[in-house]
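Severity: low
Component: inverse-folding endpoint
Summary: output formatting inconsistent between runs
Steps to reproduce: submit the following structure tokens with default settings.
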């Protein structure tokens, strides 16, 4: 059997960087056609010393999930457009990474330095429904969105206020927080307002206003709940002691050339941005 005939009996895969194979199926296939090709491919990949198999089934190929599981595959994760299954066929312990385990949230400390007021909202639904608590605008960072971009977007969506990113003041993590499974990482970002007229989001926000920062900090909720007290006091400290510095962003690229942001101490971020393109020295 020549290579062309052999390939027609196998599922077409692309090697990954870790000794595995990625298979992306997008066209309809019957179970009768799929199962023999999968079994032959598993034998072939095993003989080639392949370790892990990533089997991506496009939306509409749900008929292939059960047959794949019958051949040892397990569901890794699912999105609207596809279902991803994996199989580890090497004799060594699996090194396939688990599904994404974290959700990224952002909160926005939007400070009007002239009036010493902070932008706050009351939510229609959720944990704070009916509490009367005034809170910072918050939300979840979308897929493919940078942390600072998520903070700007959430503020504008909820209040209509346009802002500029200043820095990350702090972050916290909480395990088994989202769906009682995923870890939630929350970044508190300082933003500088460039507009001041509030136009609240009617679907999610009950009310929005500029509040004196001391009044925000001294709310009973913030004083009784330790984490909220810590974060509120941090915002107050930032106003009173501007030398408190968080993390600013530096635009850079990954080793593969993709745009990325490095967050580091504001003084050093300013230095990196000012000396961009210059060779580093040891002093």
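Observed output (run 2 of 3):
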């Amino acid at each position: 059997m020549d290579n062309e005939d052999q390939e027609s009996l196998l599922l077409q895969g692309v090697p990954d960087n870790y000794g595995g194979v990625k298979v992306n199926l997008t066209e309809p296939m019957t179970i009768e056609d799929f199962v023999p090709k999968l079994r032959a491919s598993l034998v072939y990949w095993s003989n080639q010393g392949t370790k892990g198999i990533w089997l991506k089934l496009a939306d509409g190929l749900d008929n292939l999930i059960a047959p794949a599981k019958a051949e040892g595959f397990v569901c890794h994760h699912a999105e609207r457009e596809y279902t991803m299954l994996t199989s580890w066929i090497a004799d060594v312990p699996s090194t396939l990474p688990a599904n994404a385990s974290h959700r990224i949230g952002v909160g926005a400390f939007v400070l009007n330095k002239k009036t010493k007021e902070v932008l706050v909202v009351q939510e229609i639904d959720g944990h704070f429904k009916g509490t009367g608590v005034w809170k910072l605008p918050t939300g979840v960072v979308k897929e493919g969105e940078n942390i600072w971009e998520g903070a700007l977007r959430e503020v504008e969506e909820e209040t209509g206020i346009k802002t500029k990113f200043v820095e990350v003041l702090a972050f916290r993590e909480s395990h088994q927080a989202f769906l009682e499974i995923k870890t939630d990482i929350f970044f508190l970002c300082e933003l500088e307002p460039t507009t001041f007229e509030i136009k609240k989001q009617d679907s999610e926000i009950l009310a929005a206003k500029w509040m004196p920062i001391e009044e925000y900090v001294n709310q009973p909720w913030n004083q009784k709940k330790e984490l909220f007290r810590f974060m509120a006091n941090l915002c107050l400290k930032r106003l009173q002691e501007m030398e408190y510095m968080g993390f600013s962003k530096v635009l850079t690229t990954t080793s593969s050339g993709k745009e990325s942001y490095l967050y580091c101490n504001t003084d050093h971020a300013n230095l990196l941005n000012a000396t961009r393109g210059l060779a580093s020295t040891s002093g």
